[in-house]
Design goal:
By secondary structure, the chain is an alpha/beta fold. The chain has 16 helices and 20 strands. It folds into two domains: 282 residues, FAD/NAD(P)-binding domain, CATH 3.50.50; 184 residues, FAD/NAD(P)-binding domain. The strands form five sheets. Strands 1, 2, 3, 4, 5, 6, 17 and 18 form an eight-stranded mixed β-sheet that branches. The chain binds flavin-adenine dinucleotide. It is an enzyme of class 1 (oxidoreductase).
Length: 486
């Protein structure tokens, strides 16, 4: 800390975004940083998401931090092991002493040379730089069901799951049929008395091809050169999908729609049910789900599927009033309704130069140079910011790409003994125009669906419209003329 108690870097959020930021700072010899975490525990997504069946949808050798292999038990790690991995990273890099828990940031304000940061608990910090890593998928999206608070039964969003929830022999309703629902439903179907599944939109589902890695191979696969080779192979196989998502509807059919239809045909014999489970949008437009247990669970004797024509009209003390099936009693209602990326990308008020708020700058839609930095907001960097999502590979690859840009910016500040760095407006405008021009070629834009990738005006704000290696190249090649350093 300097004499004025100005911390060099304040990191907001302790998920993989915040942790990789801290690891990179340490590598650069910067130890003057604090990680603020609003929860009573650190670790982000995989410490929080403890709902039944929670697991990653990208093979673990790729969904891990570069150079930090782990003896994975499954090709697609389950939540428990992902939480262990998070703890391992924190311990190995001695990050715990730098994390402050129960520290919810409510405001950051630029004051000529530094940021002033206010916390909900009344504390305040000053820092030269902020790395915001509040996670686009860390705030639950709640459905608009009238009377939900009056229900006799318990209501829980999948994001808020905890050990105290009793499923045994209970009447359960689950709202949603996306990524979390597809994991929860097969994991609870054998325990509940009845499970009502409310599906607004059927999703495309592919076989998961999961593999339980025998104990004797785990350590070998975690050896650096072997892990690197495996990671590289998976990376390139997954990267091929971008050709399908962006350039080739024929390839999208071959790699996506045809295998997904075969998977459905193989697992669901009833023609009427198959019809109910067949999406009406182009595969890839929403996140493609991977499961071998979802369709069988939907056909379990305990399951009742309610499609969009049989939607929930309202809730009352007695239960859920449906359009076609009448009143449904439920001891527990699980809201598997996803997240609100726009709200959680930066989850507090940010006031930049000349009193400009981030809300005002993003009035039309969230936008940032390389999805990371913005004019009027000096020394402020967003991890997993606007248009940095990818539907085909590991989010950690993108986070690590952003780190290359963020750390270069910090290096430039040090080299020039400068006070601040920010992109020029023309650079941000040019980058954003390129992103949305390229987006028009992708299935996320053209695929005839509504998804969390889009904001309420239909603008795709979550995804990067290209190869992840193109994004990394942009992040690695610092364009001096795109920045004001002073
Ligand atoms: C259920 C689930 C499954 C997923 N599956 C995959 C997958 O298969 N593949 C993939 O690539 N990605 C997946 N993701 C995306 C995942 O979020 C990213 O891979 C990655 O974990 C993001 O890390 P992060 O640090 O950016 O965000 P997070 O892990 O969400 O961490 C953000 C942290 O910031 C904290 N925070 C938020 N606001 C504040 C505040 N105001 N003050 C202080 N702290 C704050 C939060 O409490 C949280 O701990 C999944 C996400 C979820 C939720």
């Amino acid at each position: 800390m300097t004499s004025e108690n100005i911390i060099e870097v304040l990191i907001v959020g302790s998920g993989f975004g915040g942790l990789t930021a801290a690891m990179n700072l340490k590598k650069m010899g910067i130890n003057d940083f604090v990680i603020l975490e609003r929860r009573a525990f650190f670790g982000g997504t995989w410490k929080q998401s403890v709902y039944p069946g929670a697991a990653v949808d990208v093979p673990s050798p790729l969904y891990s931090i570069d150079g930090e292999p782990f003896p994975w038990e499954h090709l697609y790690a389950k939540q428990k092991q992902l939480a262990q991995y998070t703890e391992h990273i924190i311990e190995k890099h001695n990050l715990a002493p730098s994390i402050e828990l129960c520290a919810t940031v409510i405001e950051a304000k630029w004051c000529k040379t530094h940021w002033q940061v206010k916390l909900e608990n009344g504390k305040a910090f000053k820092s030269k730089i902020i790395i915001n890593a509040t996670g686009p998928l860390s705030s639950p999206a709640m459905p608009n069901i009238h009377g939900l608070q009056d229900l006799r039964g318990q209501v829980i969003h999948s994001n808020n799951w905890h050990d105290g929830i009793d499923l045994n022999n209970k009447l359960v309703a689950i709202v949603g049929s996306g990524a979390s629902a597809v994991q929860i439903i097969p994991s609870i179907i054998n325990r509940v008395k009845k499970l009502h599944v409310f599906q607004r939109t059927p999703h495309w589902v592919l076989s998961r091809f999961d593999y339980h890695i025998p104990k004797r191979f785990r350590a070998t696969l975690a050896l650096r050169p072997i892990n690197f080779a495996l990671r590289t192979l998976i990376y390139w196989l997954f990267e091929l999908r971008v050709i399908a998502f962006k350039y080739s509807p024929a390839l999208l059919r071959v790699l996506g729609a045809i295998p997904a239809k075969k998977h459905l045909l193989k697992q669901v014999q009833d023609e009427n049910l198959r019809k109910q489970l067949t999406p009406d949008f182009t595969i890839g437009c929403k996140r493609i789900l991977v499961s071998d247990t979802y369709y069988p669970a939907l056909q379990h004797q305990n399951t009742v599927l309610h499609t969009k024509d049989d939607y929930i009209e309202y809730a009352s003390y007695e239960g859920l009033q449906t359009k076609q099936s009448g009143l449904i009693d439920a001891d527990l209602i699980i809201l598997a309704t996803g997240y609100n990326p726009e709200k959680s990308m930066v989850s507090y008020q940010v006031i930049g130069e000349k009193g400009k708020t981030l809300g005002a700058q993003w009035r039309d839609y969230p936008r940032a140079y390389l999805g990371t930095s913005m004019p009027n907001f000096p020394n402020f960097f967003i991890v997993t910011g606007p248009n940095t999502g990818i539907g085909h590979t590991s989010a950690l690859f993108v986070i690590e790409s952003q780190m290359k840009y963020i750390m270069t910016c910090i290096k430039k500040l040090h080299e020039k003994s400068a006070c601040s760095i920010q992109p020029i407006p023309e650079a941000e405008e040019g980058y954003t125009a390129m992103v949305h021009r390229e987006m028009e070629k992708t299935v996320w834009y053209k695929g005839r669906c509504n998804s969390w990738y889009k904001n309420e005006h239909g603008k795709v704000i979550a995804m990067f419209p290209g190869f992840s290696f193109s994004f990394r190249r942009l992040c690695k090649k610092f364009a001096h003329h795109h920045h004001i350093i002073k």
